[in-house]
Task: structure prediction
Amino acid sequence: MSTRTAAIIIDDFLSEDKWNWIQSNVDDYLNTNEFVENIHEPYKTTIGWIKEKLFELDLFQEHWNSTIDGWSFINTLPPNVDRESSGTGYHIDFGGFVYYVHPTWDSSWGGNLKFENCDVDKIEPAPNRFVWINPKVPHGIEVVNDTATHNRITIVGWPEGCVEYPDATQQINIPI
Result:
C-alpha cells in the first residue's frame, strides 16, 4: 500500500535558552478556566523563533511570509473543554503546525493530538515538541481531563503547505 507523509514531529524544537524564556512567560496561560486564543507574549517572540527554526531546517516556504502571522496564535486548552465541534472528533486543514509550550505533560492527562486512518493513532503533547500536519489529514484533539495540573498550551498556525523532513523525530503516514 502506498503512503504519504501525514505529519512530522520534531522534539526539542527550540534551544534551551529560548525554551527557558518561553517558560518564564507562560504563567498567565497555565491555569485559565476557559479556552484562550490571542497574539500576546510569549506568542510574538516565539513565532519569530519558530520561523527562524523553520528557515534553519530549510522547511520555510516563501508564501508563508504573507500567511504565517495572520493565521497563527497562542491558545490554551483547559480541562474538559472539547474543541472538536465537527461531531466526528476530527477535522482537516490545509497544512499547519502545533508547537507545545506548556512546561510539563503527563500522558494520563489526555490532550493528545490524534490522527484518523494513519499509521499512528495519537501523539502526546510533549513540551517543546513541534508537529507539522500536512494538508487533507484528518486530525483532532483529545479533551484534557480534570486530573491535569495545568492547561495544554500551544502556538498554532495554518500557513498552508506540505512539509517533508527526513530528519524528523517521527514521521506519521497516511495511505494514498
